[in-house]
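RETRY 2/3 - previous attempt timed out on the joint model. Re-submitting the same 622-residue input unchanged.
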Amino acid sequence: MGQTVELACIIDDDKIYVNLVKKIIEIKKLSENLLIYKNGKEALDYFKEIMENTTDENKLPDIIFLDLNMPVMDGWEFLNEFIKIKNKLNKKITLYVVSSSIDPRDLERAKSFNLVTDYLIKPIELKKFEKIFEKTAA
Amino acid sequence: MLNDLQLNSILEDFDIAYWKINLFSREIHWSNHFSILVGDPEIEEDRFEFFINHILHPDYRYDFRIHFEKLIKENEPFSFEIRLKLENGKYRWFECKNQKSRNNDFRETAVLLFVNIHQSKRDQYTIEENFFYYRETAEMTSTGGWYVDTVNKNIYWDDVTLKIVECPRDFQPAYKDRMKFYAEEHHNRMRNAFDKCENFGIPFKLELKMVSFQHREFWVRLTGKPVYNNDQEVVGIRGVLQNIDENKNNELNLQNSLDIIATQNSRLFNFAHIVSHHLRSHSSNLSLIVELLRESKSDRDKLDLLANVEDVSDNLDSAISRLNDIVSVQTSLKKEPVRIRFEKALEVVLASISSLINRENAKIVAEFQDLKEIRYIPEYLESILLNLITNAIRYKQPGRKPVIFIQTYTDNDKEYLEVSDNGMGIDLDEYGEKMFGMYKTFHPNNPEAKGIGLFITKNQVEALGGSISVSSTLDIGTTFKIKF
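RETRY 2/3 succeeded.
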């Protein structure tokens, strides 16, 4: 394996899922660091703070895994807010929507966002995770 | 004076035939025209008997003999209708009448006229027949006729219209009261159509609600066309009015059912996706665990993962039981609504959550004096109260003793229930739309929130044809208002 991703970000309220992904990343050494937020608002607050206070691009993730169904601020609302600030963040960020919803309407809607690289349906296989991280790191 | 020849030809032109009868010898002379009409038969027997047996329709034999005797013995005018068989073998209608002799003393001859009335008789039949069909059609389709004399300001309604509008048969609608018979909300439409027809001769066809003499509202289809005088000025409007109340109501009911089915269908569709989504999130975690188990090398890792399996199992279990709660909203709909006292429903609810109330030291104030009871499904009312009260306590303002104010009342014949609290409130601009959605939770750090209570409450209220709304101020409190 060549390069690893520096910083990955998971926005998901399912603790079990987050723990499992954390474990995968540890075992496979896919990312050096990991940000975890349990809803869109927490993640957004973090990004806004960085945007206002530092220019440290190392604090911005290379890759985001965004869940759709979350309390307080769901994935859709996060996307709508994130579009507004994305250009001000001085880094290329790859964003994947990750959901257990197989509703085709969700899939269509996610793909209508330019900043969404792909829509991943849970569960994601280990190999798929590895591929995604490799692609992002390269 | 006319001579016989001239007279004969005039009578012929009018299709009038006659008999000349010698009162003494009873000898009968047929006019030329009469002979031709009946086909100029060879007559060997008595002319009168031949006429009776071969020309006159059998139904009139008796009457004819009586009248004939009268004609000979008396000198009184008479007239009656008979049918004669003509040369083509078909019966035709004639009016048979005598010519009263001017000279009373010396009556030698009498004249019996046969006037062909077949055409007018047929016209009369056609008119009667048409009138019959018109009546039957009007009755069957409940369509009445009406006329408004716009010059003299008079209204005329026919019998069927009077019946449709539930008026007495001798009722005469007054021009100034004409709007009274239309539902308030359709006054403008009616007036516009009428004015346009009266001023510009534009016909109209409307579907609108009328108000009957008995103050009952019903739907009609109304057509109106202008009536012109010789100077081409509109002097009236006439048209028909059809009672379509049954059809219209069926149509409205059908539309209503269609709407309900459409919303239920989309709700079911959403429900199916939500269910699959929610169950899938657990199953996908399980399959991730299995994959990781295969990959993990150390026993410690494996034990960690097994603990996760237990969590997934618990989550799956509670997810299914919550889905069960939702499904039961639909199944209990089959129960019949009964009259329930709010106070009693509240008692049941408070008893079931007494430990929560005591723990939080919550104060519950109920005012049911304006509306003491309601027809409802008891389980629903209890579930609604339970959800709203537990929500109010759960989302209390930290440090403030929770107070919940419950009130029922009627407004404009509609029944309302309001549940207000002094809790933390919610930002409706941000969350208002999602408030009643499934699995929507708004207060971070509240693990008890499952995002299901208000979803079920809304479903229950709507399932019985009501609606629920919310108003809230952050840090002040929230009020839920249910219209039953």
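Chain A touches chain B through 26 residues (CB under 8 Å). Closing ticket.
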